[in-house]
Amino acid sequence: MASPSIVVLISGGGTNLQAIIDACKLGDVQGQITGVISNKADAFGLTRAQNANIPTATLNHKDFDSRENYDQALIKVIDQFKPDLVVLAGFMRILTPNFVQHYQNKMLNIHPSLLPKYQGLNTHQRAIDANDKEHGVSVHFVTEELDGGPVVLQAKVDILAQDTADSLAQKVHKQEYIIYPKVINWFCQGRLTMVNGIAQLDNQPLSEQGHI
């Protein structure tokens, strides 16, 4: 039986992509990255994929006159790889409802906050400004609400008095590289599903914070 096909979408350096590539090589993810797609031709993540002999594609959003037209073209590129799972790894695009519906129940994202806190950007600074004692990262299914899909797994880090947005980001990144491959593997094993908008692990509904 063929390994589940994973397509990863990126816009930048691809550090989470690298963590997933490494996990696949080690057998910690029982799936195969069949394609890496970027909206930016100079994204270093494309080089990471090429170094791992993974096919790549670039589709520049600036070549399209609307978000809808771009997403329709992107669907055609993604579907050439016949994905079982679409993974957003620093893909800096707001997705249209049609795109999200096309990959319903089989698209994951990672977001640098303890959702539902701090959807959107600048999450590290926002957590510091709010005098939060902890911060972290969430892996969640993608729905039409931005950063609003059901959470699968979170990892927490302490916010120390001397922390800056940069130092906090470094702590969060370390956790990202651990939990994203883990969640992707659950999906590839058939353990993780989304049913009626609720994330389930081993057929058990997960809480709002995901797996504890």
CATH structural class? Alpha Beta
The strands making up the biggest β-sheet line up spatially as 3-2-1-4-5-6-7
Number of helices: 6
Distance between the termini: 31 Å
> How big a fraction of the residues is strand?
15-25%
State the helicity in percent bands: 25-40%
- Sum up the overall morphology in one term: globular
Number of domains: 1
- Topology order in helix (H) and strand (E) letters: EHEHEHEHEHEEHEEE
CATH architecture descriptor name:
3-Layer(aba) Sandwich
User: What integer value in Å does the Rg equal?
Assistant: 17 Å
CATH superfamily caption: Formyl transferase, N-terminal domain
**What structural class results from the helix and strand content?**
alpha/beta
Strand tally: 10
Summarize the structure.
With 212 residues, this protein is α/β, with parallel strands linked by helices. It is built from six helices and ten strands.
